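To the wet lab folks,

You asked to see what we're planning to order before we commit. Fair enough. Below is the target structure as tokens, and below that is the sequence we designed to fit it. If anything looks off to you, flag it before the synthesis order goes out.
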């Protein structure tokens, strides 16, 4: 089977060209064609000899995704359903903010975590995405929408820390100044809370933002919403976050999806404030998006504002996340299999 050239980082490409008896500077040329010029094929790499282009084409796939479906929301948010060329499909979302374009990428085909409020639950987990497939989501969207993406969130389908090696490799490719050149500070990894991997991530020396899907400060409630809490409870999770902050000096972000009469009263806010007291962190409050047959309903605006104010009054920085793309099911947790092959 042919290998995907986008699974190669610059170092791998250098080694590849050395093995092919070619000059190693070819690696930088190819890297630039892929990540700066964002071309569609080897044949467009005009500073390479025709022979070399043909040789590469014989041995490698270029792996440009096909667009199966593209939906555009009233607010300009675009949701892509990509054919990833093996019969599977994934979703990627492009959002525009004041500070530029942000992309929400998937890390797996399906997800194993089983969070009760998430639209990815109940669909089978198929496989990890390769690093090349993670990066291709950015390239494919940039090609289609003619934009330069400046922020990346790993908040699409999948649990990024369950596909650790490929996610880290993709981030290093994305970071590379000779390619996409998107700084780690503009990349957020969102996790349901796989504690050992948080410790590992802290040691990578990458300045990305860690986002924790917390959703409750109460172990019973959180376990009910998120089975991962049975493996790693809130106290273990917070300990890992404190370690992450100490090592990286980065502020951790906590995601909290508010569900009516579940986790949205002031008792819940009080527990949360106590849990996060003194931490270098930020709380992102998200009105929960109801999924089909889901047991959780969106909190009222009034409750969400009260919840935020309660936290802010206690010195915990909390903001309410603007909902983008909700009319095309592109908002948090709404990326769903129904559309997929
Ligand atoms: N597996 C990772 C990343 C994917 S989910 C994680 O759990 O963090 C991305 C974010 O969307 C998470 O914060 C998740 O908790 C949130 N989310 C999932 N379903 C949601 C829903 N129905 N409403 C609001 N947020 C949701």
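Sequence we intend to order:
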């Amino acid at each position: 089977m042919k290998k995907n050239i986008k699974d190669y980082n610059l170092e791998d490409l250098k080694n590849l060209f050395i093995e092919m008896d070619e000059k190693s500077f070819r690696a930088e040329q190819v890297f630039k064609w892929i990540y700066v010029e964002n071309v569609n094929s080897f044949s467009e790499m005009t500073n390479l000899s025709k022979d070399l282009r043909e040789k590469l084409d014989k041995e490698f796939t270029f792996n440009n995704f096909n667009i199966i479906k593209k939906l555009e929301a009233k607010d300009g948010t675009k949701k892509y359903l990509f054919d990833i060329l093996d019969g599977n499909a994934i979703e990627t979302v492009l959002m525009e903010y004041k500070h530029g374009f942000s992309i929400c990428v998937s890390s797996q085909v399906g997800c194993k975590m089983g969070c009760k409020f998430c639209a990815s639950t109940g669909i089978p987990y198929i496989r990890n995405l390769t690093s090349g497939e993670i990066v291709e989501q950015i390239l494919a969207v940039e090609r289609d929408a003619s934009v330069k993406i400046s922020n990346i969130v790993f908040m699409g389908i999948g649990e990024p820390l369950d596909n650790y090696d490929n996610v880290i490799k993709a981030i290093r490719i994305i970071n590379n100044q000779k390619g996409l050149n998107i700084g780690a500070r503009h990349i957020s990894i969102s996790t349901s809370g796989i504690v050992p991997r948080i410790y590992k991530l802290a040691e990578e020396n990458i300045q990305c933002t860690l986002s924790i899907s917390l959703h409750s400060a109460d172990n019973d409630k959180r376990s009910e919403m998120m089975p991962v809490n049975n493996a790693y409870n809130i106290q273990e999770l917070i300990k890992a976050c404190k370690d992450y902050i100490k090592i990286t000096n980065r502020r951790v972000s906590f995601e909290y999806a508010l569900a009516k009469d579940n986790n949205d009263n002031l008792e819940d806010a009080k527990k949360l404030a106590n849990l996060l007291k003194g931490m270098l962190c930020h709380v992102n409050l998200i009105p929960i998006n109801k999924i089909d047959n889901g047991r959780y309903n969106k909190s009222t605006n009034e409750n969400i504002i009260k919840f935020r104010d309660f936290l802010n009054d206690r010195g915990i920085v909390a903001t309410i996340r603007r909902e983008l793309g909700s009319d095309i099911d592109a908002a948090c947790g709404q990326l769903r299999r129904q559309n997929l092959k």
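Structural context that might help your review: The longest strand covers residues 89-97. The chain is about 35% helix and 20% strand.

Thanks,
Computational group
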